[in-house]
Amino acid sequence: MNKTVNINLASTFFHIDESEYTKLKAYLKKLEEGFKNTVGKEEILKDIEARIAELFQEIKTNSDYVISEADVEKIIAVLGQPEDFLSEEEEENVKETIYKKLFRDPDDNYIGGVASGLGHYFGIDTSWIRLIWLLLVVFSGGTFIMIYLLFWMLVPVAETTADKLRMKGKPINVSNIEKKLKKSLMKCLQKSKTSTTRKLEIL
Amino acid sequence: MIVMKIENTTAQMRKGILEFCILSLISGRDLYTSEILESLKKGKMLVVEGTVYPLLTRLKNADLLQYRWEESTSGPPRKYYSITPAGEVFLTELQQAWSDLNKAVKSITQNKK
Known about the structure:
- The structure holds two protein chains of two kinds.
- By secondary structure, chain A is mainly α.
- Chain A contains nine helices and three strands; from the N terminus they run E-E-H-H-E-H-H-H-H-H-H-H.
- Chain A is 65% helix and 7% strand.
- In chain A, strand 1 and strand 2 (12-17) form a beta hairpin.
- Chain B is of the alpha+beta class.
- Chain B contains four helices and three strands, in the order H-E-H-H-E-E-H.
- Chain B has helices at 6-28, 33-42, 52-61, 85-110, and strands at 31-32, 65-70, 78-83.
- In chain B, strands 1-3-2 form a three-stranded antiparallel β-sheet.
- In chain B, helix 1 packs antiparallel against helix 4 (85-110).
- The longest helix of chain B is centred in the last third of the chain and has 26 residues, at 85-110.
- Chain A binds chain B through residues 10-12, 31, 35, 38-40, 43-44, 47-48, 50-51, 53-54, 57-58, 77-82, 84-85, 88-89, and chain B through 15, 33-34, 37, 47-51, 53-54, 56-58, 60-61, 74-76, 79.
């Protein structure tokens, strides 16, 4: 003896075995979970529910028809499992996880580039870090000079372009490396320009 | 070693051109969801129906498709999709891209000897 329940799918009523009702509910839940990052999730789920109702309607031979295990399995096979069609959607939504690393910044330094490195790491303007360092050094009576030296010794300098990107928490990919290279090239050109103008001035 | 499964590769290929096929079908005449599924399955473009729903919603959100509800005598109301003018423009571009791609693939795979 099986208990049956009445369900309402897209405004259509069906009788269904209780165990099959649980199975169907779990399937819908799984779809919902799968589409949780997809734009228009509610609409997609509603459309799929309507499709299930339509398929059940085709199966149903009379108004007393009870949806069976085979029927539920059949519609799940027709619609597919979330993993069958979600791979593409998911890839779009997966954000690149970027690991920031603490480096000393050789391009922006007064002493060892510790302050600018910390600034990149915490995402704070370097001026603030420098101000804090200064205050700490003044009020601690020298202890923070030691701490600064420790940082200087222990934190590596960002030497390669990859290091510099990692220091700023930017993903290391071709376009970012290209950007970075262009930037340093421009810097070089500007430097040589100013030095030539300086030379000209001397002359 | 990575095992390449032929099913996975063909599924990837199919996915890329599914939107093109959907737009193409609907540009012929307005269709409701099940008719779209039917045609795609008949053309062996579809393995599981679930794939189509996120695509339809995406095309609709991009204003390439629009829909209206129509009552049905045999079941729940049907969502009839039609193509928008922007969708027609997009479809023309896709047709061009497909024919270019087709030519390119043909010339590469046939002249390799």
